[in-house]
Amino acid sequence: MTTIAILGAGKIGEALLAGLLKAGRRPADVLFTERYPQRVVELTEQYGVRGVENDEAAALADVLVVAVKPQDIEPLLDALAPVVRPGTLVVSLAAGLPTSLYERRLPAGTAVVRVMPNTPMLVGEAMSAISAGSHATAEHLALVEEMLASVGKVVRVPESQQDAVTALSGSGPAYFFFLVEAMIDAGILLGLPRGVSTDLIIQSAVGAALMLRDSGDHPVLLREAVTSPGGTTIAAIRELENHGVRAALLAAIEAAALRSAQLGRAHEPSA
Ligand SMILES: NC(=O)C1=CN([C@@H]2O[C@H](COP(=O)(O)OP(=O)(O)OC[C@H]3O[C@@H](n4cnc5c(N)ncnc54)[C@H](O)[C@@H]3O)[C@@H](O)[C@H]2O)C=CC1
Ligand SMILES: O=C(O)[C@@H]1CCC=N1
């Protein structure tokens, strides 16, 4: 059985850990590393998996999943470079970091797959996009696809599209949460109790999400079906357009993609 070590078990690392176990991987086949001892205790107690040091993970695991913040990558690569074994697959979940960074810093020929997941991984509904580095084979991609399919959907994209993916689906859940938060506040403005407003909006979000996924209809058609002539919805849509919400989303997502590219460039040799 393949042994997987998750290096950095924070929000996304824990989501993957939980998802892999839920999908049937044995706790003995999953390791993790964490820099805070208290976090090691918590995760060991909760999931029955073993917390180890990064060099031990490199010695024991077939797949090393990097789930530290991009800003924390340098010390981790320093720790891994002398101990990564031939044949190890490195899977990076970090925003912005190109496979070339790992290939430059780890032993020659190390296979790297870059992944952009998102937090709905916690509920088995992740959207993950994967790209092969220059030494990753079809088998490596298939293995990563199989791992991630246990916690949601997976698509393959050229690595050149990963900054855009990061801006869309990596950060995407935050935009929906932001929208929901604002809509709940609108209910408060209209005098509804917070609990009622929250229930109304969350169930509407769940229903709309399922229609988007399952109906096969374009979002425009779904919106038009809610928008009666001379009715309430069109009055709201006019305000959304007047306030530039569409343009704001285009600008926001473009800013996220630029930030992803910038995070990658920060680790270039000349930076
Ligand atoms: N949170 C999100 O929605 C998403 C995050 N990502 C990426 O996943 C990565 C992790 O993000 P989060 O989980 O949000 O961050 P986080 O801060 O919750 O988790 C990172 C964890 O790594 C640990 N860590 C740092 N250096 C370490 C080291 N040398 N050895 C062992 N553990 C170490 C930290 O203690 C922390 O618990 C980032 O690179 C981020 O770009 C990707 C997609 C979505
Ligand atoms: O905000 C971030 O940098 C990470 C990457 C994608 C989602 N969260």
TrEMBL record:
Q: Does the entry feature the keyword NADP, yes or no?
A: yes
Q: Which GO terms describe its biological process?
A: L-proline biosynthetic process
**What does the record give as the function of this protein?**
Catalyzes the reduction of 1-pyrroline-5-carboxylate (PCA) to L-proline.
- Top-level lineage group: Bacteria
- Alphabetical UniProt keywords: Amino-acid biosynthesis, Cytoplasm, NADP, Oxidoreductase, Proline biosynthesis
Q: Which family does it belong to?
A: Belongs to the pyrroline-5-carboxylate reductase family.
HAMAP family found in the cross-reference section: P5C_reductase (MF_01925)
Enzyme class, one word?
oxidoreductase
Where in the numbering of this chain does the Pyrroline-5-carboxylate reductase dimerisation domain appear? 159-263
The residues forming a coiled coil are none
Q: What is the first-listed, main subcellular location in coarse terms? A: cytoplasm
* Catalysed reaction equations from the record: L-proline + NADP(+) = (S)-1-pyrroline-5-carboxylate + NADPH + 2 H(+); L-proline + NAD(+) = (S)-1-pyrroline-5-carboxylate + NADH + 2 H(+)
An example Gene Ontology CC term for this record: cytoplasm
> What protein name is recorded for this chain?
Pyrroline-5-carboxylate reductase
The UniProt record lists the keyword Flavoprotein: no
Signal peptide positions on this chain: none
Task: Give the pathway listed in the UniProt entry for this protein.
Answer: Amino-acid biosynthesis; L-proline biosynthesis; L-proline from L-glutamate 5-semialdehyde: step 1/1
